[in-house]
Write a structure and sequence with these properties.
The chain contains seven helices and five strands, in the order ααβαβαβαβαβα. Helices cover about 50% and strands about 20% of the residues. It is globular. The protein has a five-stranded parallel β-sheet with strand order 2-1-4-3-5. The N and C termini lie far apart (about 40 Å). The protein has a single domain, classed as Alpha/beta knot, CATH 3.40.1280. About 25% of the residues are buried. It has about 180 residues and is an alpha/beta fold.
Length: about 180
């Protein structure tokens, strides 16, 4: 009986996806609600696909608005305060920023695999309409960009979730990634 349990445990340990990414806690913090139902459905689709591999904390914070008394930098700083109230400081912080580094899906997977060794989880932050405050960018461990082009926030959320799901498939040598 014990040898059967040990063999099963050894198989799990030999499974690359188990070692590298499974059980990594993922926190995604963003500003502003998803506007279109079909984007909400696509987000749910990928969150459900990620669920067997990781616990995802998906946090949507209200966006601040520019007014006559509040300028763009103040808006971003207020959003930063909201962000830091939710951010798990034990996590590796990845800021999604147009000035960030571009990765292939394979390199992105490597970043997350290395992160698993040094941190208990990873936090992705997606800024509001004005982007991210320097307070957040300065504390981030990594800045990533999916393209030099601009994407609607709703679409980018789905793209990020798909790439996170893809990392699990790449890490586990699954057939999804081609």
């Amino acid at each position: 009986m014990f040898s059967r349990i040990l063999t099963k445990y050894q198989r799990l340990l030999n499974n690359k996806i188990f070692n590298a990414l499974v059980f990594m806690k993922i926190q995604i913090i963003m500003f502003g609600k998803t506007a279109k139902q079909f984007f909400t459905e696509s987000e749910k689709f990928y969150l459900d696909r990620i669920k067997p591999f990781s616990k995802v904390e998906y946090i949507v914070l209200p966006e601040e608005k520019i007014s006559k008394t509040i300028n763009g930098e103040q808006v971003k700083d207020r959003e930063a305060e909201k962000f830091f109230a939710k951010y798990n400081e034990a996590n590796f912080l990845i800021a999604c920023d147009p000035q960030g580094k571009h990765f292939t899906s394979e390199k992105f997977t490597e970043v997350l695999e290395k992160t698993k060794i040094t941190h208990s989880g990873v936090t992705f932050v997606i800024g509001g309409a004005l982007g991210l405050s320097q307070k957040i960018l300065g504390k981030s461990h990594q800045k990533i960009s999916f393209s030099s082009m601009t994407f609607p926030h709703d679409l980018f959320r789905t793209m990020l979730l798909e790439q996170i799901y893809r990392t699990f498939m790449i890490s586990g040598n699954r057939e999804y990634h081609k």
